Amino acid sequence: MKQLQLKEVEKTVESIPMGQKAYFSKTVTEGDVALFAGITGAFEPLSMNQEFAEKTPYLSRMVQTMLLATYTWPVSTQIASPGAVTIAQESTFLKPVKIGDTITAVGEVTQKIMEKKIVIVRTTCYNQDGEMVMDGSVVELMRVH
């Protein structure tokens, strides 16, 4: 029997160029919010209860902030995998996101620490109006041989 040959080539800190970018866009759906709550237990009323949300300054339900943070995972994965393990993620949420908003996540390699085999990816998210709704970073540890 022939052995399976993976076509993906493992990336290294040396092979990832400074300034490399990746993008991911998604329209947030009611299902996304409900499934995320079911998986994580994030059932906060502002995300799950329309009557509650209407009595807040936002006037409608908001997407869980950590759901928004997960939209950066495809961009950091596209940049650093295979070969990387995420060891830190930092996010600052700048504007609320509503169900139905289209979010575009952007990842950009901003720093490499060669001796530690680390790649730092700045992660930002924008809504359909081009407003930044999240700013952050992901620290990727490349495989240490």
Automatic annotation (TrEMBL):
One Gene Ontology MF term: (3R)-hydroxyacyl-[acyl-carrier-protein] dehydratase activity
Domain MaoC-like: 19-123
Biological processes annotated in GO: fatty acid biosynthetic process
One protein family per Pfam: MaoC_dehydratas
SUPFAM superfamilies membership: Thioesterase/thiol ester dehydrase-isomerase
InterPro entries, sorted: HotDog_dom_sf, MaoC-like_dom, UPF0336/Enoyl-CoA_hydratase
Record protein name field: 3-hydroxybutyryl-CoA dehydratase
Source species: Enterocloster lavalensis
Highest classification ranks of the organism: Bacteria, Bacillati, Bacillota, Clostridia, Lachnospirales
